[in-house]
Amino acid sequence: MASTDSANDSKQLHVAMFPWLAFGHIIPFLHLSKFIAEKGHKVSFLSTTRNIQRLPTLPSNLSPLINFVKLALPRVQELPENAEATMDVPTQDVHYLKKAYDGLKPQVAQFLGKESPDWIIYDFAPYWLPEVAAGLGISRAYFSIINAWFGVFFGPSKDTMNVSDERKTLEDFLTPPKWIPFPHLTYAHPVPSMQATLDARAIGRPTDSGFRDAYPFGDAYLKGHPHAMFIQHIAMPI
Prior knowledge:
Elements: H1 6-9, E1 14-18, H2 23-38, E2 42-48, H3 49-53, E3 66-71, H4 94-102, H5 105-115, E4 119-122, H6 129-135, E5 139-144, H7 148-154, H8 157-160, H9 191-197, H10 200-204, H11 215-222, E6 228-232
Parallel strand pairs: 1-2, 1-4, 2-3, 4-5, 5-6
């Protein structure tokens, strides 16, 4: 984000953050926000009202630089009242949360158009965001909180956007995928964890937005290119 020009290096940037509605994503985005604020830049952290209310208190030296922008999560009939994060719904209902999340597009677009941040750092889920930001001349960065090995195992970006990945059952995920040339894989997680993480129904099922659940993984990355930055999460204390 920094320019090689010394005069521009001292410029305060305005960076917007837009994580997916899961605290396993929101907290790493908050840590990144703090890191950016520590460098003297302004941060606008976009999330739903209830999720923002559940965040830890900011350090006093950073609170003037981090502004929490509360978004109203659109009502989806199938979601329980006040359900605004994955922790609030059973796994099989997360696709309803994704539908509500997609409904945030007008509010996010309005914020970006009004505030014109220098950068927008986004998660895997808002596949529509890179195009919106590009249309407004805003620089984009995709922050992947997923370990690199899991991203590779999940599939190349182009494959997650279509049905070329034929894996459907749990057993399919216990053998090397076609794009990994290793003769075998060793799993550190028990089968139940694999089932929860790689639910074949969720990966193969169209969502209420009309896309497979895996689609945003590929689209959020590919649509930002060739002009988007890629940020890989390594390790941050929760």
